[in-house]
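Hi P.,

Sorry for the delay on this. The queue was packed all week, but I finally got your sequence through. Input first:
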Amino acid sequence: MGKKKRTPSRRLTSTRPRRKPASKSLSATHKPIKLTGKNIRVELSDEGPQGWFLPLMEETYSRLTPRGEAAPPRPAGMPAAGRPFASSHQPGADESVLAQVGRTVWRERLAEFKTRKAAARPRPARAGARPAAPVVPGGTNWLPLGPTVVLHGQTVGNQPVGGRVSGLAIAPGGEILYAATAAGGVFRSDNGGTTWRSLMDGFDVDPTDFASASLACGAIAIDPADPNRVYVGTGEGDTHQMFRFRIVNALPAYRGIGPIRSDDGGGTWITERTASGSPDLAGDAFFALAVDPQDRENLLAATTIGLYHRVSAADGTFEWVRRRSGVHSSVVVAAAGGTRRFFAAEWGAGVVRSTDGTTWTPTGTGFPATDVGRIALGVQPNNPNLVYALVATANGSLHGVYRLDSVNGSWKQVQNVPEVLPGAQGDYDLTIAVDPQDGNIIYLGGDRTNSPPYPGSVWRGVVQTAGAAYAITGARSIGAHAHADIHVLVHTPGDPDELWCGCDGGVFLNRDPRGAGQFASQNDGLSCLCSNFIAQHPTDPNILFTGLQDNGTARTAAGPTWSHVSGGDGGYCLVNWANPNQVLVFANGTVYRSTTGGTTHNSWSMAWDFPWATMTQPIVGPPYNPATPGDAKYVAVGAGRSVFVSKNFATSWAMSLDLPPGAGNVFALAFASTTRLFIGTTQGEVFRADRSGNAWSVTRLDDVAAGSLGLNGLITDVAIDWSDTTRSSVYVAFGGLGDRRRVWRFDGTRWEARSGAEGANSLLDVEHNALVVDPAAPDNLYVGADIGVWHSPDRGLNWNPLQNGLPDAPVFDLQLHPGQRLLRAATHGRGLYEIPVP
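Then the structure:
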């Protein structure tokens, strides 16, 4: 079955640093270069998270239009932000490749999905109490496969890792804490981070409950007097600059639906509303939340469209009012005696303060006025007279640290600041914490340490007076045992000896940050890893591989605990189904090969370096057929407009083929047999390649005269229709936004939409990432989308959610185990799940 390429990979944190993918078309005259050894080194890129996130956003928001329809004009008053838009997938294209959608698109799609799922939900087999677990009694349910944690991760000391954590909230004493994750929802620990459990798995208990629909979190806060009162801001603020980088106000924050609240420690969630007259927070994102320590109902939020204040409404409930416009990247609160102050930072501007959350005034004088980008603020919770600001430049590098000792005083620059942002990712990674007992000790969090394996950049510094200014003395790097990309640093309330870190590798804790302490992993059960693709052993269903965003490739032989076995940003992975000791993985432009089952870091003895056009390039093999074991040696890799083919499982590459000039880059591949290969591109073309000997002939299929493919857009996956014994028929899936006709079938002559009739049985207008046709029962189709897994029992004529027990995270890959009849899903934020199919 075919797989698709996805672009969630960012910076390589192993011995092969990331390069920026080429944007131009690539010729098949470029032959792969054989490299030897594991320690392949290339120059580090300075592209930062834009290298992986911008292509990802283009895939999500790619414009779908009926074939032959002209692109809509670019809306007036929508200037490009930063630099002119340049398409990652369609060389030379401008903003016209992006869909024009409203800010509330994700809330609308998620609400529609909830309604559809409730309608499709089977009745319980027996009456009784509602289940606490995400299952439907009497129904067939998805079961988690992990990773609950990945051992031997990409840090100094090979600490266990989790997925991307955007916020942390710690209760006094440090036993109860919450982690807000970028794509997996909220997790809670009741034992100081020793173990975690998900708080957003009640989605099948009441499918119409909308509050936990979005698992994309940007900020979290709790009532310090009652840790069961939890506030969450949906939509991940740390990725906001990538949305602005494309078009101002054109790309809604991915899956942001506004603020939500829990009054029972995460057992149930409530959606909170925006006040009439204030811009709706759906489609935007949160950077930070600050709870008034004297009134837990009084809350401030730093968001991508302004500074918001939670206030009481006339009906006795609460609503959110915008107090200031503009991007606000930080908000904090400090109180002592009768004095309480909120401080907030506006991206590119400065710092303001308020005593009540309603009226805001500039704070201090002399704040830097030029080349200011994102700003992070740090305070001591009991000292409203001391504020630090960690400031990045407009391009994400370090601007400096500034200190204010009186709200009416002058900001002073702190000298001798260590290089906390060597990767210039200050728009994505920026945080500061102040020692709760000593205001002269600060902790700075940035992107990475500039040496292998490129772990987290966390620095401790002691601030001392230096004439009329300040300077850091004895700066010490303390983040090497944490993962790279630091999003939050926070102390256990009042405890200078417990410093928590949230990063792209999960949660880490330093119990001696003032001294020689190092961060230790606290990731057991933090099942929020961003899985991209799946590979599986042909006969032993317990052996699985998955490529992970910023966490390499992981493997399991049984159970939910996985091991990190290959570095970089994990993409496609492939097991030779006739010889499972042979495994291929893709990371940052290179295919790595193991002949020993890929069980350890040292398993990978060779690599092939391809022309690199997309961050995660497709690697596929022929269909499983034990009667012809020689077929398993064939491998195809897409690279730009070229496809390279090996007949000996990547030992060498004997064949290659080019798509015609002007075609898009190869995005999806599927073997029908060792002599027939189907190809989908970034520009909506579909090709069939037929082999005779070592020569390939290429035929374009999407524009056939009898009935062309009805959409223009991004082809995300191709799947063979196994009911056609001539192997001439295929299905394709589309990414992007703009049309519900997401799945199409080609019968060898003409195309027909197979996305269900408009209404109750159609697919949603969201990106559909993975497509499976059941070889044993080819009437059954399965598709994985940014919202849900869907099943059709009648070749795409009708579709319903196949969702019992599956978190509402985006599904990037689907694989059907050939012997066990298990459908596996890779979710980008909650790991892997499986469900038995008839």
